Amino acid sequence: NHNNNFKWDSKLHMPHWISQRECELIEQKLESLICNIEQFANDQISKLSNILNKPLRTLWISPTSTTLEIQLENLDFYSIICVSASSIENQDSTYIQGAGDDEE
């Protein structure tokens, strides 16, 4: 039930260190994931969609990120800040055990 005057961006936005292939694999699973979420959390999604007038979108922070230079309140979306403790260098990541930013 979002504002019809607002153009919603429904593309998948991933951090630059995620490979194109991994992004494609995630996109292939998105529709199924959305259906599962709708099945189990439909009431909560309905309530949330009545409140939000902008889409949710992730912003990714890693040790290689520079300071967050944007004004969060002036964005065309609500930010969900995701933090990775592992360092990213030339598309290779340095894994930090216990950082909680892997698939385990």
Architecture blueprint of SSEs:
Elements: H1 20-51, E1 56-61, E2 78-83, E3 87-89, E4 92-94
Parallel strand pairs: 1-2
Antiparallel strand pairs: 3-4
What does this structure look like?
The protein is of the alpha+beta class and 104 residues long. The protein has 1 helix and 4 strands; from the N terminus they run αββββ. It has one helix at residues 20-51; strands at residues 56-61, 78-83, 87-89, 92-94. A two-stranded parallel ribbon has the order 1-2. It has a two-stranded antiparallel sheet with strand order 3-4. β3 (87-89) and β4 (92-94) form a beta hairpin. The protein starts with 19 loop residues before the first helix and ends in a 10-residue tail after the last strand. The model has no long low-confidence stretch (mean pLDDT 76).
What are the main properties of this structure?
104 residues; 1 helix; 31% helix; two-stranded antiparallel sheet
